Amino acid sequence: MTEAAAVPRRGREARMLRAQARSVKFPYIRRKLPVVELLSSEAVEIIEANAETILEEIGIEFRRDPESLRLWREAGAHVQGERVHIPRGLARQLLQTAPREFTLHARNPARNVRFGGDATVFSPVGGPPFVTDLDRGRRYGTLEDLQNFIKLAHMAPAIHFSGGCMCEPMEIPPNKRHLDVQYSFFRYSDQGCEATPETPGHARDAIAMARVLFGAEFVANHTVVLGNINSNSPLVFDGRMLGALREFAAANQGTIVVPAVLAGAMGPVTVAGCMAEILAETMAGLALTQLVRPGAPVILGSFVGAISMRTGAPTFGTPEATQMIFATAQLARRLGVPCRSGGSLCSSKTADAQAAYESAHTLLPTLLAGVNLVTHSAGWLEGGLVAGYEKFVMDADQLAMMQKLADGMDLTERGQALDALREVGPGSHFLGCEHTQANFESAFYQSTIADYSSFEQWSIEGSLSTEQRANRVWKKMLADYQDPGIDQAADEAMLAFMAARKAVLTDAIEEE
Description:
This protein is of the alpha/beta class. It has 20 helices and 19 strands.
């Protein structure tokens, strides 16, 4: 038992814990704030022109995927071996068939989300092999941990979309774990999610399980899952990712194309150079989806950061990364497709001050830039290697603050508060006036983590740090988790599908 867990829970703290663990879900954000565009028209045009030069002159390699090469050749690109030179303007022309906005359908229709336009959707951390909490420390992730994080995301008010694999269940063989991951997302939350398409076969399995859950006819006509496709920056797509991309596009499911460009390693050390590379790679991948199926839903993604020139480790929350977040969103709007970027990124190993300021310096620009899908919004630690339980709760608190900010200023009669000003008049105070009494509970955002008590009260209640308070909160949230339930026949059919697939799959990752 941690020191935090041993401190008695007094009445005020118990009430706070109940408020912190509330499961009332906010709808996805429809921003009422104007987007901030840092780049001038001239700057945007320079980056776009340089991206076209990269596509035409340098080219993109599409490795070990003859079908993608065939599609590009027939579209008019110049194919030399596995390198594809895309004529200036061709990728942008192909993307005219991609939808500017699309809806991802959850099994609970109330939790459908929209990508594009004025929508912002918060999604938690994805992909870490490790997890950490104050009780057990840093360790490999398990299926139980993954299911815990799915439940926390299901409960957190301002997490609108379950996202991708919040931690890898390392005890399950790598070529079979995608089945357990997909089932867990479909079973333990009724909000939308991503798949984990490391191979074309994994993508097919995810789509097949979606058809079992939603019905084949519904999936044929609606997007119910996203596939995250990473390029191998600089300027390479590998056969596994390409095959998965084609599977998702052919099935009319959403495809996110995301270059993982860290300035100084997988991209130039300059922001403008990185942005030209990111735009070139995303345009090439997104355009390929339209060659597979015109009208297939897509999201332009970026994972932005830099590396330390002293250690080679990734850095986040820097001014350069902030510039790239704003640029990504601005370029995506000009291209006419939804955007994915940002999050609560940090390099810190624990949920400390560094984690807080790096995450804040990533998250606020993400909202102001007008990013549509915000992945890695909660739980990210150690450059993405670790999903932290306490960090998840701390980030979820910040997401709720961002949601409040995105609502804009209340200019209704209540918000203008002239009745309060008339009642109080000069020289008095507003504490007891009728307007305050009617609105004080909802007037200000009340943090689920921050402590606003006096030093004496804080000391009496155990002198808990933010991380210690967060430790209590996630445990209370899991204790209060309410199973959304699932159709028994669909559940049994998914389990049967998993068993049948595991019987024929090997443990090691295969190409198909």
